[in-house]
Write a structure and sequence with these properties.
Elements: H1 12-44, H2 48-74, H3 81-104, H4 109-126, E1 136-141, H5 167-178, E2 181-185, H6 188-198, E3 202-207, H7 209-219, E4 224-228, H8 243-253
Parallel strand pairs: 1-2, 1-3, 3-4
The structure holds iron/sulfur cluster (SF4).
Length: 256
Amino acid sequence: MISTILPARPKKRLFLGLLLVTEFLMALMLYGAWKISYLGLENIFEYLPAIFGAFLIFISTFSFGALCNMVLAVKGLPTLKLFHRYSFAIIKFLFPVAVRIGKIFGIKRRQLEGSFIAVSNLIFMKSKIKVPAKKLLVLAPHCLQLAGCPHKITRDPNNCKRCGGCNIGDLMKLSDELGFVFFVATGGTLARQVVIKNRPQAVLAIACERDLMSGIQDVFPLPAVGVLNIRPNGPCYNTRVDIDEVKRTLSQIIEN
Ligand code: SF4
């Protein structure tokens, strides 16, 4: 039964809370760096400490604003578009520090990545993005294919015989039925090439937490929604996906 092996639903506030703590600590560190460098800067130029201080205040305020914007988006409140395009850049910068801080509290990297995906998906859904089926690209990882399957599907997923041995066949059937572009990617580089070649208006990616986290950020500003794969046999081997969850997500993205 798939329901017994589904990953636990990640908490959105975990990611946002930890990022806000990280932001606060970074601001403190920047203040410390400014204090330490004050005299040296003043020796170079009288107004340099003030200029440097103003720059650090601007960076801290801006990134704090972008994080608050995400909190507003998650709460369903109006957000400022200005912050949208910088949100992922700020996450990329703060995330490695957040992972280290999380470790102190016993929070695993995967939990944080899962929480990021939950936040990102919620923002995607609240944006009410709808695209025609042929402008939606669905990307699946190669490990979703049954390891013993002799058919080469990474160049052309149509080589799948839809035998029911793995979820690739289910996704192919859905693609035939609904008309979205489906591709199986062996890695981030190939996934990016497929995105460039197909020029979709939105992406639905199926992958593990780590790959979804980097993938969603990589394709930005293209809207992307993630569905976590299920790993009953450990990572990267005969993985599965909850097809009902994929169907639910597709119904929310594809225009009627
Ligand atoms: S569904 Fe397709 S990819 Fe999966 S085992 Fe059957 S033929 Fe191979």
